[in-house]
Write a structure and sequence with these properties.
By secondary structure, the protein is of the alpha/beta class. It has a domain of 49 residues: Monooxygenase. The chain is built from 18 helices and 15 strands. A 15-stranded parallel sheet has the order 1-2-3-4-5-6-7-8-9-10-11-12-13-14-15, with no helix packed on it. α9 links the parallel β5 and β6. α3 runs antiparallel to α4 and α10 packs parallel to α11. The longest helix has 10 residues. The radius of gyration is 25 Å and the shape is flat.
Length: 434
């Protein structure tokens, strides 16, 4: 594009086909879209086109301040996802009635039993994330949730299980694909969890915060029940679990039984967060030996990652070591064990230095995504990373040692083929939902 074409008068820009303008607007931030929207009626209509907002989430901190024009605007955009942090029952009902297309709702500390009743008009709801269930009983939660049998994703955080019965009602959600149960006190009724896992045939993602479960209680959850008397109207058990992703939080469990590993053999991704027993090399060894399909391992905010590295599978494509100690020798051993690593996340980790980073192009030549948030990175090391020829995403946020000139030089060397992440909020070690 020539320099003169960049000075095209506004009237000529408006003569471009709508499809081209809409494509241009997809590259704008929400604030930039707002600026465009304020210029004229025509552009306001274009900016409100649903295609520009289909992946957007609206954050509501207080609903009472919005007027009818605001709700009309959101309706025209066909907003499907909202996050609510402060709302009354009356206001929540206003939101659900005004946004009938909602498919995803995330609710924070505003959650109370009566607020859950406001979900009822959302007949299209597929994803429900309740990030703080500490002020509502498990009976109230599940008595409302079972009305949404079209749910595919359910996350319950800081929930207290009074007994096993309310939890078992989850089996009515037969379309459930992803389930997160993060217990407030680290206790989840293992028999109830076993009961539901083997009665959800579509479940592929599971996240559990089970701090007080030992090896045998946790293993029981993944063993097919053989002593339940099946009632005439009861949902039958599946023969095998079909889980693809498993996340364990705050666990003190050092391993799993052989039968549990057998039921989990379909796993492709394992995440261990706030884990206490990574120094038990037999557990890490078992993960790699007994999970033959594993291509992703996440170790986040856990004990030092210095496992027995002999059995690391050559198929491993993604490794995340966030907020955890990992040394140069461990990174070198990992590179010798796997040649397929495409994603490496070392954000907020420590124990390694810049010299090993400079060797990444040789150690991990197939890297496509590299996350080094909060790492001490100099201009010299950044230039070396330009030799990762498959690299497409590089996170260098929270780095005080890189100048704008160094970043510009990297962009020129790589011809802008790498998307740089320069600004990102500080990682919170206590977050719950995945």
């Amino acid at each position: 594009m020539s320099h003169n074409s960049l000075k095209m008068p506004a009237i000529q820009w408006l003569q471009l086909p709508q499809e081209i303008l809409l494509d241009i607007f997809t590259y704008l931030s929400p604030s930039e879209k707002a600026n465009v929207r304020a210029t004229c009626t025509y552009l306001r209509t274009l900016v409100d086109h649903p295609s520009l907002w289909k992946n957007s989430t609206i954050l509501f901190r207080s609903i009472g301040i919005f007027n009818a024009k605001f709700w009309d605007m959101l309706q025209s955009r066909k907003i499907c996802s909202v996050e609510v942090t402060k709302v009354t029952l009356k206001q929540f009902k206003k939101m659900t009635l005004s946004l009938p297309d909602l498919t995803t709702v995330t609710m924070d500390s505003c959650l109370k039993g009566e607020i859950l009743q406001g979900l009822r008009p959302l007949v299209n709801l597929k994803r429900l994330h309740l990030t703080d269930c500490s002020h509502v009983s498990d009976h109230d939660i599940f008595s409302e949730i079972v009305n949404f049998q079209q749910l595919t994703h359910l996350s319950l955080c800081k929930v207290f299980f009074s007994n096993a019965l309310p939890l078992t009602s989850i089996v009515l959600l037969q379309n459930l694909y992803s389930l997160s149960l993060h217990s407030k006190d680290g206790i989840v009724p293992e028999r109830a969890l076993q009961y539901i896992l083997f009665r959800l045939p579509k479940l592929q993602e599971l996240s559990l915060a089970v701090g007080n479960m030992n090896k045998w209680k946790l293993s029981l959850c993944f063993n097919r029940p053989d002593n339940f008397i099946l009632a005439a109207d009861e949902i039958p058990c599946i023969q095998r679990l079909q889980l693809q992703k498993l996340e364990l939080l705050n666990s003190s469990c050092a391993s799993l039984s052989a039968n549990a590993f057998d039921q989990l053999s379909t796993l492709t991704s394992v995440c261990l967060r706030h884990y206490k027993y990574l120094q038990h090399e037999d557990f890490i060894e078992a993960i790699f030996i007994k999970l033959p399909n594993l291509v992703e391992l996440k170790v986040e905010w856990a004990a030092p990652f210095e496992p027995f590295l002999g059995p690391i599978t050559s198929k491993l494509e993604k490794l995340s070591v966030v907020g955890t100690k990992i040394c140069n020798a461990t990174l070198k051993c990992i590179s010798q064990s796997t040649s397929e690593l495409k994603c490496l996340n070392l954000s907020f980790s420590h124990g390694y230095d810049e010299e090993i980073i400079k060797r990444f192009p040789r150690l991990f030549p197939k890297l496509q995504n590299l996350y080094l948030s909060n790492a001490r990175l100099t201009e010299e090391a950044l230039v070396v990373l330009a030799n990762l020829y498959s690299l497409r995403v590089l996170d260098i946020s929270n780095n005080q040692h890189l100048t704008p000139e160094a970043i510009l030089a990297f962009k020129k060397i790589t011809c802008n083929r790498v998307s740089l992440i320069l600004n990102k909020p500080s990682e919170n070690a206590q977050y719950c939902c995945w």
